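Aim 2 progress update. The chain analyzed this quarter is reproduced below.
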Amino acid sequence: MGERASPFLGQGTFRKEFEEVGVQKRKLGIIVGGGPAPGINGVISAATIEAKNQEMDVIGILGGYYWFARGDYSHILDLKIENVSRIHFTGGSILRTSRENPTKSEQSMDNVIKGFMKLGITDLITIGGDDTAFSASKIAEAVRGKIRVAHVPKTIDNDLPLPGNIPTFGFQTARHVGVSIVHNLMEDSRTTNRWYIVVAMGRKAGHLALGIGKAAGVTNIIIGEEFQEDTIAIKKVCDIIEGSILKRRVMGRQDGVVILAEGISEKLDVEELRTIEGVRIDYDDYGHIRLSEIDLGKIVKYELERRFQERGEKFRLITGNIGYELRSAPPIPFDCEYVRDLGYSAVKFLISERTAKKASNGALIYVDAGKLIPIPFEDILDEKTGKMSLRLVDTKTDSYAVAREYMIRLAKKDFDNPEMLQKLANAGKMTASEFKERFSYLAEARR
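Predicted C-alpha cells:
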C-alpha cells in the first residue's frame, strides 16, 4: 500500500508517538472477533505455545475489539504455556469475542491502534470470519508494517475463500454435531408422523445447511445459492416445501425434515418482511441484517399451515434452529489437529522475514498439504465491496447434484405422468390442472 496515509489515522494524534515508541521485546496480541466456532481455544493455545517458545510475550485481548474501541485497555489476559496447554479440547473462547467493528469510525480505529501501541504489541493474530478479516486488513494498512498481522479464518459458515475447497476451522465440528441433532429429529419425525423445519446458520452461504442435510439424508434442503433471482419470494420457498410434503404423501410417508439455510432471509424482500407480524429488521455493526431477529422457520410454518387449513386440513409443523448449539461445542479431532497447525503457522508467518516480505500488509493464514500458505489481504478483497470475498456453495458441482438427487422434490416427470400428477393433486385436494398450474414452475429435469 506504499506510504500513503491511512484514512483511520485521523490527524495523526498518535502517529508520531507510535512510530517513536521503542519495543525491547516482540509481543504478540491475540484477538477473537465474530461468532464462536469450535477450535478457537486450540488456535490460542498453539499460537501462545509457539510464541513463548520464540521468546515472545503474549497478550490475549478480551471481548474482541469492544473495549479497545472505547479506549479501555484493561481487559487483557497474560497468556502463558501453563494456562493454555490443555484448552484445545474445549469449546468457546477463553478470550471471549464480540462483533464490535473497529472500522466503523475513525475514533474507534484510533483507539484500537493506540491500545496496541500502549501495550507494546509488535505482532497481532486475529481469529474470525470475513468481517474480522476485513478489520484486520484495515489495521495492517493503518499501521504500515509497525505491527505484523496474521488472520486465522474461523467460521462454521465455511464461507471464506480458502483454495482447494479447504474448510474453515469449526465447520467440520459444527456439521458433526448438527448431524447428530438432526438425526434425532428425523427419528422423532418418523415416530410421530410430523414434519420438522430446521433453520441452520449460514449468513451468506449454505455450506452448513447442505453439509448437515446431505450427511443426515433429510427430506429436503433449501439454500440461498439455488435461487438465480436476487430477491427470493417467501411463496417460492413455501411452494418447494409444500411440493415435498405432498409428494412424500404419495410415496406413503407422512413425515419429513426440511433444512433451510438462514441466509435465505438476507435474500428475502425487506419490504415484504416488514409487513409480516412479529418480524423486526435490525442491523449489526457491519451493516448486516440480524438474522436472529427474523424467524424464518416460523414465517414458513405459519404460511404452510394456513395453506393446509384453507383446504380443510389441520396440519402442524415443528420448527427449530441449529447454530448456537454448534458454535461452542468441543472440537472433534479433525479441528483439534487443524487449529494446532493454524496457530503454529500464524506465529511462523509473523516471525519469518521471507513470508513477511510476501505479505507486508498482513495475510490470511491457511495450511494446505501440511504447508503454511499466507494469502495477502489485498488478494482476497472483493473489488466491488472492498471487503473480503466469500465462498458460496457451487450449485454446478457433482457434489451438489448428488445432494439434490436424494431430496424429495417435484420433478418434470411428475407432471408428465398423468397418473402421478393425479395422485399429487389428490394429496393436495386439488384438480390435476390446479396442481399443475400452481407447482409446475418448480419442475426439475432430475429424477
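The chain is about 40% helix and 15% strand. Residues 410-447 form one domain. These observations will guide the mutagenesis experiments scheduled for the next reporting period.
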